[in-house]
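Pilot study result, target chain (255 residues):
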Amino acid sequence: MSVLVDRLVAQILSLDVGLLACQARLAAATDGEALHDLRITVRRLRSLLRPLRGLPGVEQLEAAASAVGNQTTPIRDREVLAAYLHQHGLHAAADRRTAQLAEDYSAVASGAELAQLLLVLDAFPRFLRASERQGLLRGLGARIEKRLAKQWKTLGEALQDPAHDRHRLRLLIKRVRYAADAYPQLAALPAKAMGRLKACQGALGDWHDCWQWLAQAEQQLDLLPCVVVWRKTMLKAQTRADQSLDQLQSDCFQR
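Predicted structure:
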């Protein structure tokens, strides 16, 4: 058991250092990837925590990570859209969406959400060690394996639903893929699974971007020049996503 706990503590410490580095980069506004890297680090933390639910300190840490995610999602969405607009020559529309990014970065770096996450994260290894001493972590490896298997089963059932919701599938795929990254020794996925999951996530991500941007274009008139292209791109991404989902089901779920 101590080997698994040692690995968990090592991952937590690494994520803590990563968050501190992202915080410093955001405060200094040194690069355009700091927010993205912060969100990736938070995502990895949440993937690590999900199978640990029920242990002391996990609920508080999940809540703190969720708060940072909610705070940064609209900022990241504007970053991605602005990059697309610049790439396609709509610089004025892009600049309107990046005008306040420096202030946004500073607000995230100095905000209560990130401060709370760092505070709770710093204490979490002590909770794990105390739980281990109290015998609360007995059977933890088997518990994690069971929860990862349940996530995989849920995804398989969703894929077999002919009326599946692409939004839900996207979230389920991300959950399975990131959990496998967090617990590679315990995930026990089929050989082709990670490649198929990555392909599905990419296609569904392209589809989701267009879907989201088209919804914004109904209210933001400077996006209207992109609507025709986005509709075509969304249909292509939808087809590609459906093909990837079919391949995932065929390779990884059919017996």
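One observation from the pilot: The chain has a mean pLDDT of 93. A full batch analysis is planned for the follow-on phase.
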